[in-house]
Amino acid sequence: QVTLVESGGRLVQTGGSLRLSCAYYGRPFNLYSMAWFRQAPGEERKFVSSINYNGQSKYYADSVKGRFTISRDSDKNTVYLEMNSLKADDTAVYYCAAGYTDSTTYAQSSNYDYWGQGTQVTVSS
Predict the structure, then answer these.
(1) Are strands 33-39 and 46-51 parallel, antiparallel or unpaired?
(2) What separation in angstroms does the CA of 74 have from each of 49, 55, 78?
(3) CB distance 43 to 63 below 8 Å
(4) R_g of the chain computed on alpha carbons
(5) What angle do CA 23, 44, 67 make, to 5 degrees?
(6) Can you give the chain as a three-state secondary structure string?
(7) Confidence bin at 84 (pLDDT 50/70/90)
(8) Residue 45 in contact with residue 116, Cβ under 8 Å?
């Protein structure tokens, strides 16, 4: 069993920065790929970014490429999402996920077995 706990979401101004954290508990951390998804009100949950089990491969949605950076710290069993140049469209609940994925399956939410409870990010002008 795996438990994921997100933190770091808050209200931030347009153009600002935030770092989200996802603490991982349970099975060995390096078993899984880790990902961030987000869900805005009235919309489906969408892929944001993922990182493979050893941190060597990282993937990003086009909408965040160049602004967001994903990383993982195996000493702290934590995944991070560094978000810069935030826009109003980035407003959403951000979810952390763990699962077995590869270079062709990383963006599909159905491939992730464990999810956190979410953390709210609100970007306002």
Answers:
(1) antiparallel
(2) 18, 9, 7
(3) no
(4) 13
(5) 60
(6) CEEEEEECCCEEECCCCEEEEEEEEECCHHHCEEEEEEECCCCCCEEEEEECCCCCCEEECCCCCCCEEEEEECCCCEEEEEECCCCHHHCEEEEEEEECCCCCCCCCHHHEEEECCCEEEEEEC
(7) very high
(8) no
The Cα–Cα gap between 121 and 87 comes to 11
Class of residue 7 by CB neighbours under 10 A (exposed 0-12, middle 13-18, buried 19+):
middle
Structure tokens at 24: 């991982």
Per-residue pLDDT tens over the stretch 30-70 = 999 999 999 999 999 999 999 999 999 999 999 999 999 99
One-letter amino acid of 81? L
Distance CA 62, CA 64 (A): 6
**Which tokens in the block code for residue 46?**
């969408």
